[in-house]
Specification:
It is a single chain. The chain has a single domain (8-498), classed as Single-stranded right-handed beta-helix, Pectin lyase-like (Pectate Lyase C-like, 3 Solenoid). It contains 6 helices and 32 strands. The protein is 10% helix and 30% strand. The longest helix has 15 residues, at 406-420. By secondary structure, the protein is mostly beta strands.
Length: 515
């Protein structure tokens, strides 16, 4: 693997960075904008109240997160008429007609085979279950004797595959192939289950692919389990603007972002594999959204070899992930109360774990007002993980672009100079050093990053870096690489200030779930 890819030519282009260590503030989707007059939710509190708890018995699947009734709170199929509709390949038109007039508490069963649609399957009803015969294997664009594949290759432009608004929605045992936009989109719904589902686009590295594979948004109580997502031009598995979510035992490969948790409270990401993406796992808040993300547990995941060149379309989406350098294992941005434990990182060319301030994507704090000034990252507990090595020695795979991916270019610039001073590459955990806002540089670890009891490669020296990115980057942008590097700080794993015991209260999310 090549060492840090840096040349004098790219040094020259970096000089255009003057003060520009902020990415373009943007939303990953037009629906990330908050609803007018929408509620403001403080971190660490449930949107539900004693008056809206309802009488519902709770989610159909034990997520390990206590149920309080949710935002709907009063819907259940118990005691209601249960309807089953059966369809086979060739009956697509009849299926479309039926979904337009569904009654609540209906199960739609799809026989094995291939179903071809010219528009989205739109569901606007509560208590709907959609079940096929199996999700098939990666690369299968047609259904077989034991798989159901929904094909949207020739569907209308900008249409989703499944487009759902409805409480107690379940989809299982099928694949969605070549959706024009999002493969499975579920919005403003409570008690959502996606199980044994595959979303895929035929062409790899294609910026014209749909943006999201599994896409629950503005929802509550979401379970994604035993699913697969491939070739999404943004995120394969996404949970956004949501409260209470579990993503477990799933696979995300060949996407720009493998698994994405955005503006979400109370999420458990357990036992997943995120490999061969641009970035394996991301946890972040965006400005302008009223949900202040918090309380995210990431446990027992494999996040290795995420070195796919970034193929997101900046023109089409202007998404945050389009600006992430290839080779990023995990990044957290504007995130708080995040626990990372039992995970494996390795062979991520840029960095294994990055902790960033939201001010790097939107430097105006006032624009973070909707989420209670939620730009700051804090309380990150990294313990009991395995770092295999092979990471941090080819930032952005050497394809540096100060215009498209300025943070990657700045990182490469700093470490190219650092290599001349004996640095062996980017450390396993990099903190941008921006938060807390306006702080004095007197504390080593003011945002409480705890890095303890992790397994590291033999001979590891420094494992944590504080880049002091605003000050250092400003010097680098002026061509003062020595001055920029001098402002960075580099620490071994046993540095006392990072040898801390997490945060209080500790996370209990998923304590009832077995890996």
């Amino acid at each position: 693997m090549p060492r840090l890819q840096w040349t004098r030519a790219t040094c020259a282009t970096l000089l255009a960075l003057v003060g520009a260590l902020s990415l373009t503030a943007c939303s990953d989707d037009e629906d990330n904008k908050p609803d007018p007059g929408g509620p403001k939710v403080d971190a660490g509190t449930d949107a539900g109240t004693e008056t809206d708890a309802g009488t519902d018995a709770g989610p159909t699947v034990d997520t390990g997160i206590p149920w309080d009734g949710g935002s709907a709170g009063d819907f259940s199929c118990e005691g209601k008429t249960q309807t089953t509709l059966n369809f086979a390949p060739g009956q697509e038109e009849a299926l479309q007609d039926q979904v337009n007039t569904l009654v609540e508490c209906t199960t739609i069963t799809l026989a094995p085979g291939t179903y071809t649609f010219d528009n989205a399957i739109t569901i606007r009803q509560n208590g709907i279950t959609l079940v096929g015969a199996g999700k098939g294997a990666k690369g299968e664009g047609t259904g077989g004797a034991q798989s159901t594949v929904l094909v949207f290759t020739n569907a209308a432009a900008n249409s989703n595959g499944l487009d759902v608004v409805g409480n107690r929605f379940t989809v299982s045992d099928l694949a969605v192939w070549n959706a024009k936009k999002d493969a499975i989109r579920v919005e403003s719904s409570t008690d959502v289950v996606m199980r044994r589902v595959r979303t895929e686009w035929e062409k790899a590295d294609n910026e014209k692919n749909g943006k999201y594979g599994l896409y629950p948004v503005k929802s509550k109580y979401v379970l994604i389990e035993d699913c697969e997502a491939y070739n999404a031009a943004d995120a394969g598995i996404y949970v956004g603007q949501t409260q209470y979510a579990v993503v477990r035992n799933s696979v995300a490969k060949q996407n720009v972002a493998g698994i994405e948790i955005e503006n979400t409270q109370y999420a458990y990401v357990l036992g997943n594999t995120a490999q061969d993406n641009t970035t394996g796992l991301v946890v972040f808040d965006l400005p302008g959204n009223p949900i202040r993300g918090s309380d995210i547990r990431v446990k027992n995941n494999i996040i290795t070899g995420n070195n796919r060149n970034n193929f997101a379309s900046v023109a089409a989406s202007s998404s945050t992930v389009s600006q992430v350098p290839a080779g990023t294992g995990t990044f957290m941005l504007a995130s708080r109360r995040v626990e990372l434990t039992g995970n494996t990182w390795g062979n991520n060319n840029t960095v294994d774990v990055a902790v960033l301030s939201g001010l790097t994507i939107e430097p105006n704090p006032a624009l973070w007002a909707a989420g209670g000034l939620n730009f700051a990252s804090a309380d990150v507990y990294v313990h009991g993980n395995t770092f295999q090595g092979g990471s941090g020695d080819s930032v952005d795979n050497g394809n540096l672009s100060p215009q498209l991916r300025p943070l990657g270019a700045a990182l490469a610039a700093l470490y190219a100079y650092g290599e001349t001073k004996g640095s062996l590459g980017v450390e396993h955990l990099v903190w941008d050093g921006v938060d807390p806002y306006g702080h004095e540089r007197t504390q080593v670890n003011p945002i409480n990053i705890c890095f303890v009891e992790n397994t590291l490669p033999s001979g590891t020296g420094n494992v944590i870096a504080d880049l002091d990115l605003v000050a250092a980057g400003a010097l680098v942008a002026k061509g003062n690489f020595a001055g920029g590097w001098a402002l960075t700080r580099h620490y071994p794993a046993d540095k006392a200030e990072f040898n801390c015991a997490g945060f209080t209260p500790a996370l209990t999310i998923g304590d009832n779930i077995q890996p």
